[in-house]
Specification:
It is built from 15 helices and two strands. The protein has 298 residues and is mainly alpha-helical.
Length: 298
């Protein structure tokens, strides 16, 4: 009988042999210990969520005329983003020199899926106030989503010069560096974000995922454990931790995390596929996995 570690090694080697991949969780084949081998199963990417939840932060409650800043903000907070964008368009027509109005128009348009309007609004806010950090940060998010990484980096470097203690800036720098394959710089940026905010679960997830992509699942584990510990409601965090556990031979623990992902989001397709795969693996004894203790080892 093979050990769990040997099974994990077979799964990873089979994955890379099948498609010539460099990442341990790319689409590939996997086998169980049963004879004959089980039918090959496609292994999906761990997750493509290396982003984070952006918020508008503290915005002044300004008002003017029949349409108030507060009306638009109320619509935004109710997640009625299209209505919020219309309200802030009206507001900015009446108050064209208010950077906050253009910022909120950009934020609302971005959430509503109107990328062009969002970019234009953030740029207008920055024309009025070149040092408007929130506009620099959220414009960089729009640019990152369009894979315009060099342009995003320029905005983020400027934002970092203005506010070196911004967690958002450091986290987004990590994303850009990772996309540019500047791994050392990405690791440093994520570590700076975590040093600034020890509860920044998104930076922990992103750094853990970066280690996982580099084939270092053991290094990823404490970070991903801590992310799950902080935000049990985020399905992607459970799924990424499940991938790290799977690639270190902890199949029962991995299955538990995939179930956690589905508890957080019943429609999370990658977790469904991952759970089906590990449940097909026949393992012997497996030591219980202590998430809390592993998170403390970060």
């Amino acid at each position: 009988m093979r050990s769990n570690g040997q099974i994990a090694a077979v799964l990873i080697v089979a994955a890379c042999a099948a498609v010539g991949c460099s990442k341990p969780f790319d689409a590939a084949e996997t086998k169980t210990e049963q004879r004959p081998p089980a039918k090959p199963v496609a292994v999906p990417n761990a997750v493509d969520a290396t982003g984070e939840e952006g918020t508008e932060g503290d915005v002044p409650g300004q008002s003017v005329g029949p349409v108030s800043f507060a009306d638009g903000k109320t619509a935004y907070q109710a997640k009625n983003y299209s209505a919020a964008a219309r309200l802030f368009e009206d507001y900015t027509e009446r108050r064209p020199n208010n950077a906050w109005g253009h910022f909120m128009l950009g934020l609302s348009a971005s959430k509503a899926g109107d990328v062009a309007k969002a970019e234009s609004a953030f740029e207008e806010a920055l024309r009025i106030d070149p040092n408007h950090v929130k506009s620099l940060v959220n414009l960089s998010r729009v640019l990152i989503d369009q894979r315009r990484f060099d342009e995003a980096l320029v905005r983020l470097e400027h934002a970092g010069e203005i506010d070196s203690a911004s967690v958002d800036v450091q986290r987004l720098l990590g994303r850009v560096y990772a996309e540019q394959h500047k791994t050392d710089e990405a690791v440093d940026a994520y570590r700076r974000a975590i040093a600034l905010d020890e509860h920044d679960a998104w930076s922990m997830n992103n750094l853990g995922l970066l280690f996982l992509e580099q084939g270092d699942a053991e290094e990823a584990l404490p970070l991903l454990c801590r992310a799950v510990q902080l935000r049990k409601d985020v399905a992607a965090f459970h799924n990424n931790l499940g991938m790290a556990l799977e690639h270190t031979g902890r199949f029962l623990a991995a299955a538990e995390e995939y179930r956690g992902a589905l508890t957080a989001d019943a429609g999370y397709g990658k977790a469904k596929q991952n759970l089906a795969r590990v449940e097909a693996v026949k393992v012997g004894h497996e030591e219980p996995f202590d998430l809390e203790a592993t998170a403390l080892a970060r």
